[in-house]
Design brief:
The chain has one domain: NAD(P)-binding Rossmann-like Domain (Rossmann fold), CATH 3.40.50.720. Helix content is about 40%, strand content about 20%. It has a seven-stranded parallel β-sheet with strand order 5-4-3-6-7-8-9, sandwiched between helices. It has a two-stranded antiparallel sheet with strand order 1-2. The longest helix has 29 residues. Strand 7, helix 5 and strand 8 form a beta-alpha-beta unit. It is globular and about 50 Å long. The protein is α/β, with parallel strands linked by helices. The structure holds NADP nicotinamide-adenine-dinucleotide phosphate. The site of NADP nicotinamide-adenine-dinucleotide phosphate has 29 residues, from helix 1. InterPro entries: NAD(P)-bd_dom_sf (IPR036291), SDR_fam (IPR002347).
Length: about 260
C-alpha cells in the first residue's frame, strides 16, 4: 500500500488527526448506518474493510467507494455471531493492510416486541447479534490494537441503551450491555493507546425496523408515521468527529437524537 500512514492537521492550534491511510473495519456495512460510515471514512481517506452477510451489497458498496475515492475497499463476508468469522475478518484485514486502526461494532438487529408476546427466538437473536457480536468484535480487534499501542473501537449502542420504552425491553437490555462494555473498555484501556466511543443514535431511517414481526408494535409504529427521523449520514458524521480528534482526546459517548417540528 502506497498510502501515507498518518496526517495531522492544525486547526485553531489543535491537532486534528486525518483518516488518510488508516484502516477501518466496519461491521453491518451492507446497509444503513454502517454503509454510510464506510462512505464517510472513505471520503476522509481511510481504507475500509466492509463486513456483513449480504455479499452482493458489500460488493456494490466496495465498487462505488473505490470508483469515487482514492482508497482500498475490501469485503469480508462475516456473521458477527460466529467467533471464527470475526477472527477471520481481522486476519483478512491484516493480510492487506499494515494496521487495524479503527473497528466499528455496528451490526445489530432491533426486533421490538412486547414481552407478553413471548418472541423468545428473537430475544436470543438480539442477544447473539447485539451483545455476542460486539464481544466477538472486541475479541478479534483488541489484541492487534494493544500490540500497536493504538486504535479506536466504536460500539454502536442506541438511545434505547439509555432509556427503555414499551416493546424495547430486550432490545434495550442488549444496548445497555453495549454501553456497559464501552464504559468498561474506557476504564481498562485508557493507558493503552486504544480509544473507545459509544455511539447512541435516536431513530434513524434505515432497514432496521423492517424485521419487526410483533403486530402490536407494527400498529404502534403506524401511529408514529410522520415523526422526524435522522439519516444514516447524520450518525456517520458524528463517528468521523469521534475518530478524528487528537490522540489524547477520548470521545467516549455520542448521543444523537432528531429534533421534532415546532
Ligand atoms: N436505525 C435506527 O433507528 C437505530 C437507532 C439506534 C441504534 N441503531 C443501531 O445502529 C446499528 C446499525 O443499524 P441500521 O439502523 O443501520 O440498520 P440496518 O440497515 O438494518 O443495518 C444492520 C446491519 O447489521 C448487519 N447484520 C445484522 N445481523 C448480522 C449478523 N448476524 N452478522 C453480520 N451482520 C449482521 C446487516 O447486514 P447483513 O444483513 O447483510 O448481515 C446490516 O448491514 C445497529 O446496531 C442498530 O441497533 C439504529
Amino acid at each position: 500500500m502506497g498510502y501515507i500512514t498518518k496526517v495531522v492537521f492544525r486547526i485553531g492550534g489543535i491537532n486534528i488527526s486525518s483518516l488518510q491511510g488508516k484502516t477501518a473495519i466496519i461491521t453491518g456495512a451492507s446497509s444503513g448506518i454502517g454503509e454510510s460510515i464506510a462512505q464517510h471514512f472513505a471520503m476522509e481517506g481511510a481504507n475500509v474493510v466492509l463486513a456483513a452477510r449480504r455479499k452482493d451489497r458489500l460488493e456494490s458498496l466496495a465498487q462505488r467507494i473505490e470508483s469515487e475515492h482514492q482508497v482500498s475497499a475490501k469485503i469480508v463476508v462475516a456473521d458477527v455471531t460466529k467467533q471464527s468469522d470475526m477472527e477471520n475478518l481481522v486476519e483478512e484485514t491484516k493480510k492487506d493492510f499494515s494496521s487495524v486502526d479503527i473497528f466499528i461494532n455496528n451490526a445489530g438487529v432491533m426486533l421490538l416486541s412486547f414481552l407478553k408476546n413471548d418472541k423468545v427466538e428473537q430475544w436470543e437473536q438480539m442477544v447473539d447479534v447485539n451483545i455476542k457480536g460486539v464481544l466477538f468484535g472486541i475479541h478479534a480487534a483488541l489484541p492487534a490494537m494493544l500490540e500497536q499501542e493504538a486504535g479506536h473501537i466504536v460500539n454502536v449502542s442506541s438511545v434505547a441503551g439509555h432509556e427503555v420504552f414499551p416493546s424495547s425491553t430486550v432490545y434495550s437490555a442488549t444496548k445497555y450491555a453495549v454501553k456497559a462494555l464501552s464504559m468498561g473498555m474506557e476504564k481498562e484501556l485508557s493507558r493503552t493507546g486504544v480509544r473507545v466511543t459509544n455511539v447512541s443514535p435516536g431513530a434513524v431511517s434505515t432497514e432496521l425496523p423492517e424485521h419487526i414481526t410483533d403486530e402490536e408494535v407494527l400498529s404502534m409504529f403506524e401511529d408514529r408515521k410522520g415523526r422526524r427521523t435522522l439519516e444514516s449520514e447524520d450518525i456517520a458524521r458524528s463517528v468521523v468527529y469521534a475518530v478524528t480528534q487528537p490522540s489524547y482526546v477520548n470521545v467516549n459517548e455520542v448521543i444523537v437524537r432528531p429534533m421534532q417540528d415546532k
